[in-house]
């Protein structure tokens, strides 16, 4: 590979390599369901800046909160309570829903939205349990539906995937990935620490899903076996097993991934893929900014991918798929693979056994 | 912490913080047993540059090779065959042995050396099996003895240990570590791929021991449970299970470590420790050079520790302990903890179970 090849390579990348629609092909109008900080601080600004999306409806358990948020945003036509949403209020005002409630409440909103033919963008993990996630996939079978894996449209991750596909690091051999943060500052009463709302745990479902799913995406391979260790000692984590978790995953292609996740540690995230001929490191990886370094042989290059708003990319990608009438990469079936792996990871920790999928 | 504290901190470190003897307190004369490339290319030059060590005898299975290597080095008084060594030839010419043979041949040389009261520096892993390692520890019970963990005198590792001990990153939560390289260029006929000589496998025994032991050293905590996954697909690895291995370790203090090792991948090594308040990353870590980065809160500092010859430090540390009549950190008992963990790691992979220690 000469200098010309390097230049060609660096110039070949369009950060919206996925975009099929023209910028003026239309807009998908969203009802945002669940008005926590992620929706208000991350999703709504992203949609405001997006090419293909608009927020026209907001939905909250609290009608008062929904109406207040609606009043704060000119483009929003209606602020609905959950009950009003389920009853079909303002159904003509939106084309799609973005579901960002506690995990165990995804299903009911997907069911209501899909029953009216609305497109569905649902946060990950899909639901609190595999069984409910399967019901969610069934409910959304006849509408455009995507699970909200924002790493799939992160340029650093897409570039890493291309490099692996092109054989730049040879055969992938092993992977290390972590996502950790601390949620104890939010006190003991939060849905992520409540198994009825979060599912079997907190760190693997909420954070471990990032290295798990991103490894699947980059390797284009799925898990076949998992094992894990978990520990909870802080009082806030008494109802969940995984204040910290370490889990190993064997992928179909033989690659072994070593992942950790913790809701009670220093903020950190990375994904490192070592192959027979080189390695890739995305660090930081999962906390809203991503940076890619590649080493082949003894040469290391920092690949400066565009620093995008990952939520803006994700929303526009989904809307582009809807407008273009094509299926997104992260269908509910794609999400179910993670749900199966996550359930097995908790089972494996409890049973002290490796579980095959 | 103000700027003065930072300066005091940075100036406080002596890279030989372990040294007790004066530079002119004497010399320990070594018989080097096993004349592979590590001994010839790494150990002998290190000893030549050292303060407290001298090579006076070399020992090989081949008398001809031993004599040839002896002739190439002025200070070396004798080149012995293994049989001559066992029979006590030139026993007055050395004070200590450095055993760097294939794993399964450590025991016989340690037994012969210890029987004559010689000090013992034995490469890791201690032996091919836990049972033989226990016999080795028994044999060396009455002489100064150390297992050759060169990371214990690596300044970056010692500094990381200090930072953890001082609480700089809060409570350790999880660790990622890898050591990998490719040995396929050496062909199929090498002792590291022969279970009779190497032990139950190759990647964990030879490489995985680095992140395992260095985590023990930095955390000052020992393993209590292990689990692992292994895969061998390349033809050279048909007799060993671990062309690549991923293993998790729970430590006494609750920290979870995710480690990988491979004898058939791109050269790579790192050790990353994430705590409640910060993180440390040693990268590269285990391939003869080490570099330390520390992040506390949102501030990251690169700590430029002296770039030492790790083998020179290791030999001088051991000799300093011998001259000073004190016990080294890595006694045979210390090494046995790794041997127990490694045996459990192989058992865990075979049984698909978590093993407690």
From TrEMBL, chains A, B:
The keyword Transcription regulation does not apply. Residues 28-144 form the Gfo/Idh/MocA-like oxidoreductase N-terminal domain. Gene3D superfamilies: Dihydrodipicolinate Reductase, domain 2, NAD(P)-binding Rossmann-like Domain. Keywords: Oxidoreductase. Its EC number is 1.1.99.28. Residues 157-280 form the GFO/IDH/MocA-like oxidoreductase domain. One of its GO terms (molecular function) is nucleotide binding. It comes from the Archaea. NCBIfam families: XylDh_Gfo6_Halo. This is Glucose-fructose oxidoreductase. It comes from Halopiger xanaduensis (strain DSM 18323 / JCM 14033 / SH-6).
């Amino acid at each position: 590979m000469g200098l010309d090849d390097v230049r060609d390579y660096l110039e070949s990348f369009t950060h919206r390599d996925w975009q099929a629609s023209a910028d003026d092909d239309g807009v998908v109008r969203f009802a945002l369901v669940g008005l926590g900080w992620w929706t208000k601080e991350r999703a709504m600004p992203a949609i405001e800046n997006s090419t293909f999306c608009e927020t026209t409806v907001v939905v909250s358990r609290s009608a008062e909160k929904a109406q207040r948020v609606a009043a704060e945003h000119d483009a929003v036509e209606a602020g609905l309570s959950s009950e009003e949403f389920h009853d079909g209020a303002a159904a003509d005002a939106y084309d799609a829903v973005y579901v960002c409630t506690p995990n165990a409440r995804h299903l009911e909103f997907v069911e209501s939205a899909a029953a009216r033919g609305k497109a569905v963008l649902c946060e990950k993990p899909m639901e609190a349990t595999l069984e409910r996630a399967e019901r969610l996939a069934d409910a959304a079978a006849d509408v455009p539906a995507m699970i909200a894996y924002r790493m799939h449209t992160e340029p650093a991750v897409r570039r890493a995937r291309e490099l692996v596909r092109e054989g730049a690091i040879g055969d992938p051999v092993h992977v290390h990935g972590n996502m950790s943060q601390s949620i104890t500052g939010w006190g003991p009463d939060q849905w992520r620490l409540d198994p009825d709302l979060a599912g079997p745990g907190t760190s693997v479902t909420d954070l471990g899903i990032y290295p798990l799913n991103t490894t699947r995406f980059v390797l284009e391979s799925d898990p076949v076996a998992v094992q894990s260790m978990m520990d909870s000692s802080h009082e806030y984590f008494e109802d969940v097993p995984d204040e910290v978790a370490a889990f190993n995953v064997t992928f179909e292609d033989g690659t072994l991934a070593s992942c950790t996740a913790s809701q009670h540690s220093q903020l950190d995230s990375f994904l490192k893929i070592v192959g027979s001929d080189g390695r890739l490191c995305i660090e930081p990886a999962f906390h809203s900014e991503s940076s890619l370094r590649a080493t082949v042989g003894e040469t290391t290059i920092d690949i400066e991918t565009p620093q995008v708003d990952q939520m803006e990319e994700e929303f526009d990608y989904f809307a582009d798929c809807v407008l273009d009438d094509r299926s997104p990469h992260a269908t509910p079936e794609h999400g179910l693979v993670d749900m199966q792996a996550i359930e097995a990871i908790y089972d494996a920790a409890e049973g002290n056994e490796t579980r095959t999928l």
